[in-house]
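Standup notes, structure subgroup. Blocker cleared on the pyridoxal-5'-phosphate input:
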Amino acid sequence: MKKEIDAAIQEVIDSSSFINGPQVKTFCSHLEEYMNAPYIIPCGNGTDALLLALRASDIQQGDEVILPAFTYIAAVEMVASLGVTPVLVDVYPDTFNMNTEHLEQAISRQTKAIIPVHLFGQSCNMEPVMKIAEKYKLKVIEDNAQSLGADYTFSDGTVKKTGTIGHIGTLSFFPSKPLACYGDGGAVITSDATLAERIRMIANHGQTQKYHHKTIGCNSRLDTIQAAILDVKLKYINSFTDARRKVAGDYDRTLSSLPELKIPTSSPFSTHIYHQYTIRVKNGRRDALQAFLKEQNIPTMIYYPLPVHEQEAYKWVARTSGTVSNAASLCKEVLSLPIHTEMTDETQRFIIENIIRFFRK
Ligand SMILES: Cc1ncc(COP(=O)(O)O)c(C=O)c1O
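Run returned:
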């Protein structure tokens, strides 16, 4: 893509339209087409997208929002930054996504929203989430930073892209994300015209007319250069997913017979785009495996080493609902193996051989 991307960047530089250039609109309309979503509002990054979603939903100090206890911190952080209490529920140990059977018991009079985070590339079970949200009149904000491109299938056969099922969805275009730019970038997705207008207004200093501020806003924009890069990459998004699925399939085939290791589980209702390939290592051997692979120059990551309620910043801010023991034990077992669109068979063979060697030691 280098030629295409270089040309797209050069075009922005030549035009000097660095802010709100035409490429921003073009990219958003192409993404709307891809997601089958009527409104995509660009913004500065995935964390801003979450803040905009919360602000537009009128979630305020004293309210509560339900989130998974095992997750990336951004959604919890934005909830807490508004003086709103994050209420944490457990996750399923096999898919790592929010346990929807625990949702109802987490609801109180203060609950205003649920934020399902589609972790590692596959969807939370959205049908029960939407049913519960409807019953209790709650907003659903999908944190789709890690799963752009995944499809969720409802029990009646309807298929929707993750991020387009709830009232609002959020995206990050951080360089490691499924659709990645050359810096920071994000977007908010909604099918509600009023919400879309509000999100756009908050992201633009709370104004719809220049220098007339209706609400307290912020400044969160997607740079034209980033939009131009994303517009090129969007054309290839399905091939990126195919490439990661091939890597995941090869790991599955070669690692599934190792008894001390659990390969990722795919949910029956979701496709998996393998943003991460996260295994679970049993018998307390995760850190030893990571150290062994590091010695062979094989990088791995622990997403995430602590559940939210054990984080210093959130210990006294967040509240857990029911048991969150899966979240706690996953933090001791998970290990994300290298996965990306340019992985060669040779590199992957080297990784796999070393994992097998560790367990045979
Ligand atoms: C699940 C999730 N939500 C939100 C974010 C925040 O995105 P950004 O880094 O663009 O602010 C990330 C990024 O790592 C993420 O993984």
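Discussed briefly. The chain has a mean pLDDT of 98.
Next: hand off to the docking folks.
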